[in-house]
Amino acid sequence: MLKLHEIQQQFMQGLYEPKAVTAAEFIQPSSKQSASERLQSYRHSLIGHLSQVLSEIYPVCLRLLGQTFFERLSLRYINEHPSKSLNVNDYGEQFAEFIQAFPPLIDYAYIADVARLEWHWHRAFHGEDQAPLNIEALNQLDKNAIQNLHFRLPVASALLESNYPIQAIWAANQVEHSEVAPVDLDQGGVKLFVWRQGLDMRIDVLSDEEWWFLNAIAEDKAFPSLCDQLLQQHPSCDTASLAPHCVEQGYINDFQLKPCEV
Amino acid sequence: MHKQSLIAGVGLGLRSQHYSHILSEKPAVPWFEALVDNYMGAGGAPLQHLNQIRQDYPMTFHAVGMSLGSSEPLDKNYFKKLKTLQHRFEPAWVSDHLSWSKIHGQVANDLLPMPYTEESIQHLANRIDQAQELLGQRLVIENVSSYLNYQVDAMSEWAFLVEVVERADCLILLDINNVYVSAINHGFDPIPYLEAIPTERVVEMHLAGYEEAGEILFDTHGQPVHPPVWDLYETALKRFGNVPTLIEWDSDIPAFAVLAQEARIAESYQQELSYAQTA
């Protein structure tokens, strides 16, 4: 007689790889359905559920690809990427990479980048709540302390670069628009900051200087060395106003003092 | 925060589509049940809305991710998040299902049925015991609808359920729709099922709609409660009394008024029982 863990192992394999198991070895047939059909009922239910999850996380990709294609894509993704988390909100992280490598979409590279944008949006939406920057404490730092100053970006944020105007594509394909306005793919790429300010979701298009600055913060560079490097990269940059600008925008919402590494 | 002393009458499953209506209209609903897995993110709007609604209403937590029946250790990370939410929102109770979802790192995100064997009973009783220890309160366990039987099954679903809850000393959330769906799918009479359940352990009942697919019924929670389920609910009320009852709706979620109407029907069944008992 099969033990519990053997049954569960076969059942799970049957859900994600139905041809790999013989359902009749552990499932009774009924007068209405064979053992295999009964297992299939659960597989259909799982596929339907995870497809629904993907369509909710990636509504713009769904709109770009159409319902039928998106369902086929989802089915392939689910077969290759079984869920690993008991919390279904964690599902779908590799969808952009999957789209990028999916042969029928090889000529539509912007769709994978739109998927990346939607995943970052999803994560920021559920990301950690944080208090705003303590500007008073920042203003009270003396010159010596500034040598050790490291800024922090909001936890619920991500930096995303694309060769395509994905922010415009995303905006044009929101569900409230009954008709999709065409977007010229040749208008060039974008550098984006996807984040949540309080409960407001934001997708901000960054300048080259802002992009470099926020990436340097994400890499935990100390503020003085960050400014030096920024001037080397962008000699015309007004570094004196860039940090206050990022503070004002809310891109910087915390800081830390860490001794310089020798 | 609203006191939890009264979980009574007919509550509604809390769904994000209804947040703004609930917060602006403050409808007269005796309690809401939150699908706690939807609030396991670190922050953001879902938790903010839950917090606001909790200020005005009693609340219970309903989970789908404990995977109590899995033959591998409990997911401590999941329970850590659940416990954080339990501390913050102080639900009257926490429920999950007599099912499993995870094995060897793969997850089905579904409520898969257990084999009805002595091994499963002992395993579940131990795991429910661990879960109760982790949460510091008695767990409420719900019967699931099922679409298959295992070769190893050695008893009825209701005999299995009763034995598990007795050994684990936990409470029961009796889903009337699930009893009916399983009864049709497996060809058993639902009345002996209800008669076998110990009345003192049933603290909540669920009502929802199913869908027909050929000769099989699926528990989709996307329809109004069907007439035979209302009939079974009436029978259940006579046995278990006016147990707090919840209207669940999880797919094709309609306007709040539709759920409220379903709740009024359930209330009318409860009122009828009260009149009959006082007459």
Written account of the structure:
The complex is a heterodimer of chains A (262) and B (279). Chain A is 50% helix and 11% strand. Chain A has 262 residues and is mainly α. Chain B has 279 residues and is α/β, with parallel strands linked by helices. Chain B has one domain (10-278): Alpha-Beta Barrel (TIM Barrel), CATH 3.20.20.150. In chain B, the strands form three sheets. In chain B, strands 1-2-3-4-7-9-10-13 form an eight-stranded parallel β-barrel. In chain B, strands 5-6 form a two-stranded antiparallel sheet. Chain B is globular. The relative contact order of chain B is 0.13. The interface between A and B is large, with 50 and 51 residues.
**C-alpha Rg of chain A, in Å?**
24 Å
Count of helix runs of chain A: 12
Biggest sheet strand order of chain B reads 1-2-3-4-7-9-10-13
Kindly identify the CATH topology of chain B: TIM Barrel
Question: What does this entry show, briefly?
Answer:
By secondary structure, chain A is mainly alpha-helical. Chain A is built from twelve helices and six strands.
Which properties best describe this structure?
heterodimer; A: 262 residues; mainly alpha; Outer Surface Protein A, domain 3; 2 domains; two-stranded antiparallel ribbon; 12 helices; 6 strands; 11% strand; elongated; B: 279 residues; alpha/beta; TIM Barrel; eight-stranded parallel beta barrel; 9 helices; 42% helix
